[in-house]
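Human:
Take a look at this sequence-structure pair and walk me through the tokens.
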Amino acid sequence: QVQLVESGGGLVQPGGSLRLSCTVSGSGTSRFGVAWYRQAPGKQRELVAAITGSGYTNYYESAEGRFAISRDNAKSTVYLQMNGLKPEDTAVYSCNKLGTSVWGQGTQVTVSS
């Protein structure tokens, strides 16, 4: 059974950076895609970035050119590097196995001075 565990969230000042990790366990972890989503209080969940099993990446409006998704198959981990963070990036960030209902528990990112 595939499981996803996020880490790396926290409190950061505006303009700062964080790197989130999504560690995947279970069979065939290096062969499927993973997406990062975020959900801010009172708002709908939105897609941030996705990466396929072969490493093809896609970014969405919320990434705004400041985020980068990558994967290390040897570590069964997908990363989300976030730079130039803004208060509006505050949200719970979760990773998802593409095309499935398999989610991690989420990690809180708070951008505040």
